[in-house]
Amino acid sequence: MEEGRNGADPDAAWSLPAWTYSDPEFYAAEVARIFRPAWQIACHDSDLAQPGDYHTIVHVGESIIVIRGEDGVVRAFTNVCRHRGARIVDDMAGCAKKLVCPYHGWTYENDGRLTGVPMKAGYGAMDMANHGLTPVEVESFHGFLFIRLVDDGGPSVAQMMAPYLDTIASYRFADLRALGRVTLRPRAVNWKNIGDNYSDGLHIAVAHPGLKRLMGDGYGVEASAHADLMRGPIIDRPSTNLSERAYQHFLPAVPHLPPDRQRLWTYIKLWPNFAFDIYPDQVDFMAWMPVSPTQTMIREISYAIPDDRREMQATRYLNWRINRQVNVEDTALVARVQAGMASDSFTVGPLSEAEVALRHFCGRIRRVIPQARLHRAPVPGWSKDA
After folding, report:
1. What are phi and psi for residue 87, nearest 5 degrees?
2. Could you state, in order of their start, the residue ranges of all structural domains in the chain?
């Protein structure tokens, strides 16, 4: 399981083995070593416009509340009362001047301080200052808010995005506003299968005829230390599909974008499990949140610069129609792969030199969890000795 000479990965030309996409012990190692120290996108700063506004996110079994305090500062806490561990807030979003536990009425300010305990005298000399909500790290990046459960010294979101700061500069991320609300879509597949599919450029021409019609042969993929970038230009030749042809026709000039981005679709995937879909007309985020070895929750929402032009409204609707079909196709594809990986005949597959993002992702998984080099699952209990 050692790397080759000069740090070269002897498995660089191979995918991760199939057992890592369903094994409970490998999944537990991923939660501990990958997901608890990883940044997760929560919402946009504009979603928390007023003091008390909050969003919640469920991540590897932890419910996190991201909330704006009376002082205007955005903070995050585990959504857990310090008395008996009850969940405090159930909604995905809302506004709360105070956070009151529905079990025993313990009351917290929106800066996390415990300020109300019914029948407090019965708790003796309990210091309320030591029983505030448990804080969670928050980072704001160009208006988007991220949380991290454990700081292992890894890079900030800004450092992860550093190679692509020029790419996103003109899209005015900080000025975006939500077009709707967060949607959750469960998928009966391992989280890696969704991410692998997202970074896979080879399947576009085969399995996404709509994207092929819109982009021709222009789709490209590249990888950096912590992020992958995919892009495809919207070509001038009218599509034979009505929605696609209408999108090409109605997409208006966007004043804040330079000429080379007026008709370009860009995708940036960040380690380990979320991405920005960046269109001239809007910006979406998508996160594939692991739930179990073979269950994932896709969490997504669209944002845009306010624009009341009728052609822009039509364009955004058409974008949704086009990508709804892409999502249908991708859902079937990842289900096929998850099912096929259950075959004892499949262990690992060769990766093309063109599959730079997949190669990079697999290499990183192998570095974090070296047992991923094994073509067959090791004897149970391996992670205790790793």
Report:
1. -70, 135
2. 1-37+158-386, 38-151
CA distance 295 to 317: 30
Residue 42's contacts (CB-CB under 8 Å, 6 or more residues apart) are 55, 57, 64, 66, 76, 138, 145, 146, 147
Separation in Å, CA 80 to CA 135, 149, 290: 11, 14, 21
Instruction: Write the CA distances from 318 to 205, 215, 237, 282, integer angstroms.
Output: 21, 16, 17, 12
**Residue 123: how many CB atoms within 10 A of its CB?**
12
* Amino acid in the structure at residue 217: D
Beta bridge partners of 41: 146
One DSSP character per residue, 242-272 reads HHHHHHHHH----TTS-GGGTTEEEEEEETT
Give which of 65, 20, 6 is closest to 366, Cα–Cα.
20
Under CATH, which architecture does the 1-37+158-386 domain have?
A: Alpha-Beta Complex (3.90)
pLDDT tens for 101-147 read 999 999 999 999 999 999 999 999 999 999 999 999 999 999 999 99
Task: Indicate the Cα dihedral angle 289, 341, 188, 381, nearest 10°.
Answer: -60
**What are the pLDDT digits (tens) for 205-259?**
999 999 999 999 999 999 999 999 999 999 999 999 999 999 999 999 999 999 9
Rounded Cα distance, 37 and 159, in Å = 15
Alpha helices in the chain (DSSP H): 24-30, 157-160, 165-168, 191-199, 204-207, 209-215, 242-250, 310-340, 356-368, 382-385
The domain 38-151 is classified under which CATH number: 2.102.10.10, 1.10.238.10, 3.40.50.720, 3.40.190.10? 2.102.10.10
